[in-house]
Amino acid sequence: MHLEIITPENKLFAGEAELVKLPGSGGSFEVLMNHAPTISTLMEGQIKVKESNGNLTHFEITGGVVEVKNNNIIVLVDTMALV
Predict the structure, then answer these.
(1) pTM for the complete prediction?
(2) How many folded domains does the chain comprise?
(3) In which domain, by residue range, is 75 found?
């Protein structure tokens, strides 16, 4: 899956991911290959990314939105920090 994590200032991540765990407003959820199309608001928490090369990356967010469609994930957030 192709993942992009974007703030108003810059693009923090762009690459291939095997798994993405997100802090949805209704509870955390994971996105895997061929996930159903989804749009969700995000609350404060942590995005966990398992990259295709096996690396794990974490981002702290204060909120945002995510769109999942056709194995493309776009995450728009206000503020983030790499953990």
Answers:
(1) 0.90
(2) 1
(3) 2-82
